[in-house]
Amino acid sequence: MLRIITEALTNEKVNASGWILDGYPRNVSQAEALQGVLERHRLPLDRVLYIDVPQEEILNRLGGRMVHLASGRVYNLSFNPPKKPGIDDVTGEPLIVREDDKPVRRHAHTPTGPPPARLLTREAAVV
């Protein structure tokens, strides 16, 4: 993931128009790696948007998420369910639960330290 982000951030067109990373970094090691990329390439970081969502809410949303891989459409059993359970509304193809959204894996999302965004705020304003 970091390689893809590095390629994008060092692209002149992307850098000229600005960029937003949504959902990245997700953990402290990713935040530290991203900080290294920004420093190595002298890329500015103006703002960090940190949304404080209760852990229980995050786990509930992950627990009900299903995706149609080919299109990227995302459904949620609680607030955006497919018309037919387990079936994509557009193609009629099966939906899947991503490995990292399965209950056993969801415990890996439990925070163990400061939010990753906090590590990136030495030079950027937290909004």
Essential attributes:
127 residues; alpha+beta; 2 domains; two-stranded parallel ribbon; 4 strands; 35% helix
Provide a descriptive summary of the structure in words:
This protein is of the alpha+beta class and 127 residues long. The protein has two domains: 2-51 and 114-126, no CATH class; 55-109, no CATH class. Helix content is 35%, strand content 9%. It is built from six helices and four strands, in the order H-H-H-E-H-E-E-H-H-E. It has a two-stranded parallel ribbon. A two-stranded antiparallel sheet has the order 2-3. Strand 2 (65-68) and strand 3 (73-76) form a beta hairpin. The longest helix has 13 residues, at 28-40. It is elongated, with a radius of gyration of 17 Å. Mean pLDDT is 81; it is low at 105-109.
Summarize the structure.
The protein has 127 residues and is α+β, with helices and mostly antiparallel strands. The protein has 6 helices and 4 strands; from the N terminus they run αααβαββααβ. The two termini are 25 Å apart.
